[in-house]
Write a structure and sequence with these properties.
Elements (H helix, E strand, L loop, with lengths): L14 E4 L2 E2 L2 E2 L1 H17 L3 E7 L6 H6 L4 E6 L8 H15 L3 E5 L2 H14 L3 E5 L1 E4 L6 E7 L4 E5 L7 E5 L16 E4 L4 H18 L9 E5 L6 H14 L2 E4 L1 H5 L20 E5 L5 H4 L7 E6 L5 H5 L2 E4 L2 H14 L1
Parallel strand pairs: 1-4, 1-6, 4-5, 5-12, 6-11, 7-11, 13-14, 13-15, 15-16, 16-17
Antiparallel strand pairs: 2-3, 8-9, 9-10
Helix pairs in contact: 3-4, 6-10
Bound molecules: flavin-adenine dinucleotide.
Length: 338
């Protein structure tokens, strides 16, 4: 969704920090980001705003002012008690449209890494991840976003000159928080969750709860996991048959979950479950890093893929090159006849 013209820079001002919450509590990285935001705002003669989204968080805003915010946008709603990147991103896009920040910084944490890229895509703006230094070009006011590149061998300074807001993420403990001043206060702006978000939340929560009780990948000894290569819900029926035959559980990649073929509770990876089974059989999963971090400690990894060169096929103990719709029925037939 590309909304308004983001090239008219004169309409954009102020430095925003997206507050990082864990179990409903604002995390120290937010205070560090506010410290960085204060220096940037001073160079741009603008203000620091913090955005905090969650449930029962209204009481926590005073720490945001103490650590440097001039204004705080609060979106406090019971339906935001569990982090859902899709929902928070659509709220952020609305806020950006309304208030037009020039710079937006977030934490390079699991939450920030799921949320901030979504905002960047939805607003058609650039994003530099894992910055170690942020500055302002005095010539034209561009945000200078410095980060290691080429395996840390050089430092690259990146700028996103054409669109606003300019977005960056920073890892925890990279920037320094200012000494808090608890006598500081500022303006609180309350924003709501809209009905369209509420409907999405309801759908996602229903899907999540409908299966939560029956999926416990952590207890399984064997997981048969499917990815985009499974091609749809019918493909997962074949995996279920396979799992029933070997007494295993079914898992999935995020691509399969995002496509709506299987509920989120089956997802393995960075933003899903971490598993450590005896056997992990990846069917049509390419093995991107966000998936591998959730399963690479399994004892034996078997991969079935048409492409022999995928990261999953490289790390697999047994790599079967072939069409999973031919390979798996053959395995099931062999198992049944033994
Ligand atoms: C912040 C963030 C968090 C993320 N978290 C997760 C996470 O928790 N878990 C996760 O999984 N991903 C996660 N991702 C997404 C991840 O980057 C990948 O996009 C995703 O894992 C790809 O899923 P896939 O391997 O199923 O799809 P693809 O990469 O498209 O791979 C499909 C594979 O299927 C094979 N194939 C196609 N047809 C057949 C066939 N008939 N027979 C055999 N093989 C076939 C192809 O050769 C290919 O290798 C995250 C991404 C981000 C940015």
């Amino acid at each position: 969704m590309i909304i308004s013209d983001r090239t008219d820079k004169s309409k954009y001002s102020n430095v925003w920090v997206v507050a990082e919450l864990l179990s409903g509590k604002i995390q120290p990285v937010t205070h560090e980001l506010l410290g960085a935001a204060r220096s940037l705002a001073a160079m741009r003669s603008s203000q620091v705003w913090a955005v905090v989204m969650g449930s029962g968080i209204a009481e926590q805003t005073h720490s945001l002012f103490a650590f440097g915010a001039d204004k705080v946008i609060v979106v406090d709603d019971i339906r935001l008690s569990g982090f859902i990147d899709e929902i928070e991103a659509s709220i952020m896009v609305r806020l950006i449209e309304k208030y037009k920040p020039e710079i937006l910084i977030g934490a390079a944490t699991a939450r920030g890494r799921a949320l901030i890229p979504r905002i960047a895509v939805k607003t058609n703006c650039g994003l530099t991840a894992d910055c170690t230094e942020l500055g302002i070009d005095p010539e034209n006011g561009d945000l200078l976003q410095t980060r290691p590149a080429f395996g840390g061998n050089i430092m690259a300074t990146i700028r996103c000159s054409n669109h606003r807001p300019q977005m960056a993420t920073v890892r925890p403990r990279v920037m320094k928080a200012l000494e808090p001043d608890f006598s500081r206060s500022g303006e609180i702006i309350r924003e709501n969750v809209q009905d369209s978000d509420a409907l999405k939340i309801k759908r996602i929560v229903e899907i999540f709860h409908s299966d939560q009780a029956t999926v416990n990948l952590g207890d399984a000894q064997i997981i048969i996991a499917g990815g985009r290569g499974v091609k749809g819900p019918a493909g997962f029926e074949i995996l279920r048959k396979f799992a029933a035959e070997v007494g295993g559980a079914v898992g999935a990649s995020r691509a399969a979950v995002d496509a709506g073929w299987i509920p989120y509770s089956y997802q393995v990876g960075q933003t899903g479950q971490t598993v450590q089974t005896k056997v992990y059989i990846a069917c049509g999963i390419s093995g991107q890093i966000q998936h591998l971090v959730g399963m690479q400690s399994c004892e034996v990894i078997i991969a079935i893929d048409k492409n022999p060169d995928t990261p999953m096929m490289q790390i697999a103990d047994i790599a079967v090159v072939g069409d999973l719709f031919e390979v798996i029925p053959e395995i099931i037939t062999n198992l049944a006849s033994n």
